[in-house]
Amino acid sequence: MLDVGRHPNISLMAYSEIEKVEGHEGNFTVTVRRKKRYVDEAKCTGCGACAEKCPTSVPDAFNTGLGTRKAIYSYFAQGIPSTHTIDPDFCRQLNGKKCGICQKTCQADAIDFDQEDKIVELDVAGIIIAAGYDVFDPSQIPEYRYSELPNVLTALEFERLLSASGPTDGHLDLPSDRAVEAEIKALEKKIGKSKRMLEKFEKKFDESSKQFYEKYNKGDYSDDKDRKKWADKYAEYLAIMEPLEDLKKKAESFTTAKRLAFIQCVGSRDFRFYPFCSGYCCMHSIKEAIIAHEHENETTSRIFGMDIRAIGKGFEEYKIRGGNNSNITYVRGRVGEISQGPNNNPVVTYEDTHERLVKSQEFDMVILATACVPTIGIIELAKILGVELDKYNFIKTSPFSPVDTNVPGIFACGCAGAPMDVPESVAQASSAAERAAEIAIQLRQVQNVQF
Amino acid sequence: MNKDILVIGGGIAGMQSSLDLADMGVKVHLVEKLPSIGGKMAQLDKTFPTNDCAI
Ligand SMILES: Cc1cc2nc3c(=O)[nH]c(=O)nc-3n(C[C@H](O)[C@H](O)[C@H](O)COP(=O)(O)OP(=O)(O)OC[C@H]3O[C@@H](n4cnc5c(N)ncnc54)[C@H](O)[C@@H]3O)c2cc1C
Ligand code: SF4
Q: Which H or E element spans position A249?
């Protein structure tokens, strides 16, 4: 990533979109919209002082919504470029409220609320589409109850939990527990406010709120307006304190997830959604189970699948190693249902096709290996480029020219063309680079002869 | 006529294409729709089959 940002031959335009493409192989004219960040890319040093001070918290897309970021943000800590961006949907200043704290904080004077989009025109000889993929939304599968059960996650969400730089610093905290902890935090904030208010009364009347309240309830001070207000405030305080104490007691027993279930082919190999095999998800479930076990060695994982597809250099060995060293068991069978068990624990009901029995098992966390699906916006992009899509809306290529599209001079690589893992994406990327270089270098030779 | 190449998308595939071309001496314009490049791989903790760090 760093190399891409630094290479003298690469001009990087992030936060930008393709608007128009005209021409043909060897001579395309491309219009790019560089979207306004409200931050001057030339001035921003990426120091992050603005984000620290920004008062507006927003769900963090990079952390799959499991954490928060500010309305002014860098996409992720090591992101290239590190230029910050203001989210116009949430920024207080851009939504007519008084704020501008980031502008006051920025030492580099990089914040520009009046910035406009910039249109850039490029002349290029060839184009490579590497627009990637999205993960399937499992809430479309009602029997897995992804939207209802807090401890049922997608594999991408689970990656963020495993990551040391993620929202839980790499701990497998249960989302249901995290929700309780967030509630505790919110109530503590309220209780702080309430306490400060009570202190004022206590100072004024030189008595503790508790003592006062006992007397008040006996009927003393019944006509005193100020004391009535005090009593109301104390009642409010108690109404917050009781649930807060209960939640805190509950939180004492919170532990990290140690019994994991991985469910394969969620949206893939499913005729209701995508009949194809996404290719990489068996492997990423094994990987995630191995890493979870590295984090805490009492972790056990069961991987439920029709079969485990470990096709690639060193993959089968990796699968066997996982079974031998990382407490992973592979269960052949398709999961029919996930239901709610005790303490928010998901219960997996499945058919064990070896024993020909329907069984149920309770877990701490269930991880769904969701399908690789065409990326949002690919239909519009294909229209702009004039390239054909296949029946699923991946870029159409053929098995014997896997990186060529139907338009000469336009190539595709990685998951934009079909589901594939990183090694295959990298191989295709080099292949597409070589196909594009043929055009660029041939042109260079022609031009050298002419001039 | 220009001899530059446009790469759309800055995930692992787009980054690899860009670097290969740039190393061959071809000028590349890399357009990414999100605020930073990296794609899905940047969101992964580690990658199979070597368990190397993804970033
Ligand atoms: C949970 C999970 C774990 C995985 N673990 C592994 C693993 O351990 N090992 C492994 O080999 N593979 C793994 N994979 C697969 C891996 O993520 C993919 O193979 C790889 O990321 C594909 O790279 P890509 O560049 O094609 O796509 P992406 O990473 O999707 O990159 C595409 C880029 O293009 C940008 N883009 C999209 N549309 C546009 C547009 N219109 N204009 C400009 N830019 C655009 C996107 O913002 C993105 O930055 C995993 C996948 C998942 C879901
Ligand atoms: S790789 Fe495994 S989990 Fe993914 S679709 Fe294929 S068989 Fe199913």
A: helix A225-252
Name the residue with the closest Cα to ligand 2, atom 4: A281
Closest CA to A292 of A150, A136, A155: A155
pLDDT level of residue A451 (50, 70, 90 thresholds): very low
Distance from Cα A433 to the centre of ligand 2, integer Å: 29
**Region for A343 from its dihedrals, namely left if φ exceeds 0, alpha if ψ lies in -120 to 50, beta otherwise:** left
Task: Tell me the pTM.
Answer: 0.94
User: What's the Cα-to-Cα distance from A135 to each of A244, A309, A375, A415, rounded to whole Å?
Assistant: 37, 19, 8, 11
Alpha-carbon distance values, A217 to A205, A214, A234, A441 (Å): 17, 5, 12, 90
Residues 6+ apart with CB under 8 A from A75: A62, A85, B34, B35, B36, B38
Query: Looking at the predicted structure, is the pLDDT value of residue A392 above 90?
Result: yes
ipTM reported for the complex, 2 dp: 0.97
Answer for the pair A413, A432: CB distance below 8 angstroms, yes or no: yes
For A281-296, the pLDDT digits (tens) are 999 999 999 999 999 9
- CA A330 to chain centroid, in Å, comes to 27
* Residue among A407, A433, A428, A414 nearest A131 (CA): A414
Mark yes or no for CB contact A432/B17 under 8 Å: yes
Residues in the ligand 2 pocket, defined by CB under 6 Å: A 264-265, 268-269, 277-279, 281-282, 305, 309, 369
Q: CATH second-level architecture of A135-172+257-373? A: 3-Layer(bba) Sandwich (3.50)
Residue B7 has pLDDT above 90, yes or no: yes
Q: Can you identify the CATH homologous superfamily of domain A376-450?
A: FAD/NAD(P)-binding domain (3.50.50.60)
Size of chain A in residues: 451
A92-123 pLDDT tens trace: 999 999 999 999 999 999 999 999 999 999 99
Give the pLDDT score at B1: 58
